[in-house]
Amino acid sequence: MKIQKTDKRVGEVAGLFLKLGTIAFGGPAAHIAMMHDEICRRRGWVSEQRFLDLLGAANLIPGPSSTEMAIYLGYERAGWKGLIAGGICFIMPALLIVLTLSWLYVHFRSTPQAVWLLYGIKPVVVAIIVQALWGLFKNAIKGPMLAALALLTLILYLGRFSAVALIFGSGILVMCTKNLWRMRRGKGMNIGIALLQGLGLPVSQIAGIPVHFSLTSLFLIFLKIGSVVFGSGYLLLAFLRNDFVHRLGWLTDQQVLDAVAIGQFTPGPVFTTATFIGFILGGFHGALLATVGIFLPSFLFVAAVFPLVGILRQSQWAGAFLDGVNCGALGLMAGVTIQLGKAALIDGFTFSLVLLSAFALFRFKINSAWLVLAGGVIGLAYKIFL
Hints:
By secondary structure, the chain is mainly α. Helices cover 79% and strands 0% of the residues. It has one domain (2-196, 299-385). It has 14 helices and no strands.
């Protein structure tokens, strides 16, 4: 009976993340907002606090944060099988779409356009993120200090401070402030800290890769990138340009920009940019090796860190650190929402669409997946017929 129950949960995880991987446009903040809607509000698989703690843990390790959330949540729901199913099923739709676009790009030397479709999807995504932020803030903000920290993180992020520095800085600030204040009041000291260390994989031999292309070198480069790059698309772009344009000369700047554009346009994780580059350089085998290389570290990091999340919450020091990380993560999500809003809300139609979407979400609790699909259809119809 227990095996049947586990298998049923694995099927639930696979079905949900296949759906999310197919319709989750808008980048990591939007992906996480949709996961929150489906998993916390609709299915009740985890509590709001547990979701926040897993989100904080995802922000502490390298790799794409939304993919790592899918892996964490799959693990939480269905154990090791769920870990694998959640991650693979979230990645798979984007992988297949990017493979198709890569083939078109290679054969026709142009990037397919979907501006009209995204015209209607982007305002809906903004509304979905706002709804998720509202629900998460109510659980994460446990006092004036955390509220001020979230606001400060938002301001510094918009001022172009490093997202990684802000995440760790928020955690350290709250951990020290809460516990040093507690110690000064004579309540004793409970140092039960579990420190998270990056599991940086040693791939120093990559520095000596020859200019001549090889599939092994391609795999190792993306394994390195997946092991050291946190979830920022801008930081990913910097690594891609440094390795593939400047150091190896395998790609041009325009090809790298096209690759990032493909990753931004398609649903699911932006890191499927690796699939596109792998296909350009090494065909189907190159695409698969590049994809495995950039995502494999995320599965390993999550498997290593997951057992520690509960321990961290139980420790007064580490629990305070997680509170700070959660507030920092939400401040970053708010910053991304503002940036996305500037790009998405460009006229009266898009402003109307975001307001209607927000009303539908808050008043009628409509499933975010249906709203994304409706937004795409409405945007397409608007551009075609008006």
